[in-house]
């Protein structure tokens, strides 16, 4: 696994003590959980991204949806044009903190079988995304 590093970093950041804050990408597109699947797919296509951060009415990050998840929901037998992102998100998480070490985040991603983790602050607001490079 190789982690994506999207922003320039200072030279004093070493691999041993690196945290999620050293490697995360900026938050990117954030959408409300009452958005429909079709609109979310359009936003994702316009932003040319493979995932969207989903937030509730209070601005707390409730999860991350991928193009694969949205396409599966749209292709499901129970799909209607009224299906909202909150309907397909399921359990909240997993999330990580910017002070989490890269080793801990990598373990969490492997255990949770995810390619991207929302990075949130102590209030649950999205700060960025830690994603695996492909």
TrEMBL record:
It comes from the Bacteria. InterPro entries: CBS_dom, CBS_dom_sf, Diverse_CBS-Domain. Keywords: CBS domain. The keyword Cell division does not apply. Pfam families: CBS (PF00571). Residues 24-80 form the CBS domain. PROSITE patterns: CBS. The keyword Mitochondrion does not apply. This is CBS domain-containing protein. It comes from Streptomyces arboris. The lineage of its organism: Bacteria, Bacillati, Actinomycetota, Actinomycetes, Kitasatosporales.
